Amino acid sequence: MSQEDTSLEDHKPLVLTRSVEVVTALVIALFGLLVAWDSQRVGAAWGDQGPEAGFFPFYIGIFLVLSGLGTVVYAFFSDAGKKVALEPFVRRGQFKAVLRVFIPTAVYVILMQFIGLYAAMAIYIAAFMMINGGYSVLKALPFAAVVPVVVFVMFEIWFLVPLPKGPIEAMLGY
């Protein structure tokens, strides 16, 4: 595949605006239904002492349902909704750029649970600089080593704020 073919492929829409609007509106409407339904459990009427605990949440849920359904109708039947219906919400190239940031960040959060904040931070910084920044290992490693140490000194020693630690810090006695 040539560079030009890749560029054309990256420019293709991944998802259209109407699809995102409709799915988001339906999720909001479903959430509104859940709120209204659960408000009935705790009482959504007007009692002897005034409104019951679920009175206001019930009507908020109903408004959410109506706004979600209204957005779906707008997306399909209004002139403005029809106009943006075929516009791309995100293109393949744009989504790839988002994933190049999201995936390493998600891996960082998962790693933090097992090896602690500081070791995960060092891996994250080095990998992010090399993969997304195009830096060599020799340029990435100093930052990957120094930044976690600076964060450790600043939070653990100066501010006395404990952050999640892993097995490396345990071996060092922290």
Question: What topology emerges from the helices and strands here?
Answer:
Blueprint (H helix, E strand, L loop, with lengths): L2 H9 L1 E4 H26 L3 E2 L2 E2 L3 H23 L1 H7 L2 E4 H24 L1 H15 L5 H22 L8 H5 L3
Antiparallel strand pairs: 1-4, 2-3
Helix pairs in contact: 1-5, 2-3, 3-4, 5-6, 6-7
Instruction: Indicate the overall shape.
Output: flat
Weakly predicted, low-confidence segments = none
The domain tally reads 2
Percent helix range: over 70%
Structural class: mainly alpha
Query: Biggest sheet: strands side by side, in what order?
Result: 1-4
Number of helices: 8
- Portion in beta strands: 5-15%
In N-to-C order, the SSE pattern is: HEHEEHHEHHHH
Radius of gyration: 25 Å
Q: Tell me about the biggest sheet? A: 2 strands, antiparallel
Give the integer mean of the pLDDT values. 90
Number of strands: 4
Distance between the termini: 52 Å
Features:
single chain, 174 residues, mainly alpha, two-stranded antiparallel ribbon, 4 strands
Give the structure's gist in a few sentences.
With about 170 residues, this protein is mainly α. The protein has eight helices and four strands, in the order αβαββααβαααα.
Folded structure, characterized:
The chain is mainly alpha-helical. The chain has eight helices and four strands; from the N terminus they run αβαββααβαααα. The chain has helices at residues 3-11, 17-42, 55-77, 79-85, 92-115, 117-131, 137-158, 167-171; strands spanning 13-16, 46-47, 50-51, 88-91. Strand 2 and strand 3 form a beta hairpin. The protein is flat and about 65 Å long. The model has no long low-confidence stretch (mean pLDDT 90).
